[in-house]
Design a protein that fits this description.
cell membrane, membrane, 136 residues, single chain, transmembrane, two-stranded antiparallel ribbon, mainly alpha, Non-ribosomal Peptide Synthetase Peptidyl Carrier Protein, Chain A, transport, 75% helix, 2 strands
Length: 136
């Protein structure tokens, strides 16, 4: 069992995932700080509150911390936008790579000849079905 665990953990994808989790955690801390220290006070200026997380309301004995929820929503939106941009860039790079690979593979001569014959036959059948050009 220890050998299987060693094999599992030494795979490149597991190590890449671990690095991604660590970087994601650090990035999350950075986004939380950005939201708490810069964006919330800026939004709080418009809500007449210096600290957005201090916005609350009470119903009976229950206290609803709307401001903290708004902080969390802002953090979520920032994180999702960054992930969206990373995926978009990754997909664009992958598509470019696939296009380059497709253009580099030469078409065999036999296949090229078959394509030309197919195109000629298609043009001929289209030309024959045209009533104006049909010979009587």
């Amino acid at each position: 069992m220890l050998k299987e665990f060693k094999t599992f953990i030494s795979r490149g994808s597991v190590l890449d995932m671990a690095v991604g989790v660590l970087i994601g955690g650090a990035f999350n801390t950075l986004v939380a700080s950005l939201t708490k220290n810069l964006l919330s006070p800026l939004i709080g200026l418009f809500a007449n509150s210096i600290n957005l997380s201090s916005i609350t309301f009470k119903v009976g004995a229950a206290t609803f911390t709307v401001g903290t929820f708004l902080d969390d929503v802002i953090q979520f939106l920032i994180m999702m936008f960054v992930i969206f941009m990373i995926v978009k860039i990754f997909n664009h790079m992958r598509d470019l790579n696939q296009t380059e690979e497709a253009s580099e593979t030469p078409i065999p001569a036999e296949e090229q000849y078959l394509k030309e014959i197919r195109d000629l036959l298609a043009n001929q059948s289209h030309h024959d079905s045209d009533p104006i050009n049909k010979q009587e």
